[in-house]
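Minutes, structural biology subgroup

Action item carried over from last meeting: produce the structure token record for Type II secretion system protein GspI C-terminal domain-containing protein (hydrothermal vent metagenome). EB confirmed the sequence was re-checked against the source entry. Recorded below for completeness.
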Amino acid sequence: MKHRNRQQGFTLIEVMIALAIVSIALAALTQSMGVTVLNQTQLESRIVATWVAEDELVKQHVLAGKDSEKGATTGQANTVVQLGREWFIEIRSESTTFPGIQKRLVIVTEANDASDDLTSVNLVTVVRD
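Output recorded by EB:
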């Protein structure tokens, strides 16, 4: 009777190589997920900042030419809370070449943003004096 010496299963080196490949793939996937979460958070902050700036622009248009409170004071920072976050709003006014028309720049930044990439949105509109 002939005895065959056939090996069954994987060798240790094959298992080690497979584990190395899987670990590299998982590390890349984890890094990709981290970047995706960071980008989503930054996008959310930018969207909320845009909403705050648009709200302030609407106030500037509605209250333009009135002697009452005009939202954030021109040239000074004001704070507002929206969606549980505090935002700094700064309004800058400039005269235009057209009489009775002013250019308004609204700058919104997140008050509690401790990261290096500060969320900031700038919107511009024109209003009547």
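Discussion: Strands lie at 77-82, 85-95, 101-110, 120-128.
Next step: EB to file the record with the rest of the batch.
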